[in-house]
Amino acid sequence: xxxxxxxxxxxxxxxxxxxxxxxxxxxxxxxxxxxxxxxxxxxxxxxxxxxxxxxxxxxxxxxxxxxxxxxxxxxxxxxxxxxxxxxxxxxxxxxxxxxxxxxxxxxxxxxxxxxxxxxxxxxxxxxxxxxxxxxxxxxxxxxxxxxxxxxxxxxxxxxxxxxxxxxxxxxxxxxxxxxxxxxxxxxxxxxxxxxxxxxxxxxxxxxxxxxxxxxxxxxxxxxxxxxxxxxxxxxxxxxxxxxxxxxxxxxxxxxxxxxxxxxxxxxxxxxxxxxxxxxxxxxxxxxxxxxxxxxxxxxxxxxxxxxxxxxxxxxxxxxxxxxxxxxxxxxxxxxxxxxxxxxxxxxxxxxxxxxxxxxxxxxxxxxxxxxxxxxxxxxxxxxxxxxxxxxxxxxxxxxxxxxxxxxxxxxxxxxxxxxxxxxxxxxxxxxxxxxxxxxxxxxx
Length: 444
Ligand code: FIX
Ligand code: ZN
Known about the structure:
Elements: E1 3-6, E2 9-12, H1 21-34, E3 37-39, H2 57-61, H3 64-73, H4 78-83, H5 86-99, H6 106-117, H7 128-136, H8 139-150, E4 152-156, H9 164-172, E5 180-181, E6 183-185, H10 187-190, H11 193-202, H12 213-230, E7 234-239, H13 250-266, E8 269-274, E9 276-277, E10 290-291, H14 296-305, E11 311-315, H15 321-330, E12 334-336, H16 346-360, H17 376-402, H18 408-427, E13 433-436, E14 439-442
Parallel strand pairs: 3-4, 4-5, 6-7, 7-8, 8-11, 11-12
Antiparallel strand pairs: 1-2, 9-10, 13-14
Bound molecules: D-fructuronic acid and zinc ion.
Zinc ion binds near residues 41, 43 and 370.
């Protein structure tokens, strides 16, 4: 048995073969680059949703992350900005964030990465070339190109049954591109009940603001009908930093009496996205949301009280991440996912992913893109893969120092779990295995 020095570490020859740092690093990078992803949370839409399916330079540059950055980089007021037409907004963002200053933020570097990957001039002083390029793209071919470049096999959408444009597409019965999966989003029902009531009533459900037994049963009928239409992989809701449960509010009553029983009835996971402060600056519109530290024990309580429900959970505050790891160690029906929104920055993804490896092994979902524009998949996944590769390599190198080699096939298995397997089992996308909290049942 020979001992090999690795980064000052030692590794034993054996079945798995001795590894040196260079070989290990190469394996991790190659596997990370090649493994396709199931993107568990996006705001993308399948082509069948027409105008809702955003792509191209004007949408890319009008990403709300960049709109927020524009107001720090120029004297333009939100009121003046919203008066401009879309091309003028795009040109202004390009001029202020990419020409007059260095694009160093995650969101501006992302645009540079997309343009560079597509072979476009990242130092251009105007957008003529970019506009010509995107105008020339055939939608279906371009979708194939982006999914291949980003190594994304499946996309989970965010679907709002109270959005009239979207509802019409679902009600048409058109066949949706099978790579796009639905997630039934409950924000407007759980966070805006009084406004949701007339919309649900208009769809034929006898609900009222004062929640009674009939309203509960009609809400469940509403959910059942939309589950039948959308076939969602999970139900989801974003919740504020001060989310409490139980509490005497419509949200808590609907969660307890309508949503959670529906999850159990349909064996559907519930995605909790906690910590957003909506409209901290309303003048910025969709760019005006903020973050607040939430109470992770609320998610833990939901897991404890609903052991038959599988929860996906992501928190928006960096300060909640360690607590989320601890909660996930206590409850096997809690699956942490993603480095959400303001956390989707390489410095923070690195920190969160490392503490997840240390506390959860490979039993978590490291990232989702939250992409709103198709082209963003190219940079969001490129940036994430680099960071996760570093964290995974360091974890393997630590394992080597502790005396256990890893093989290429083990690296492939681990990355496949992280990038798709954990999620697909959790939501039953691959019926071969279904995750029952605490038990993995091998289907026949
Ligand atoms: O609640 C959500 O799904 C958030 O991701 C969005 O509201 C947010 O605007 C976003 O797209 C962040 O990346
Ligand atoms: Zn989102």
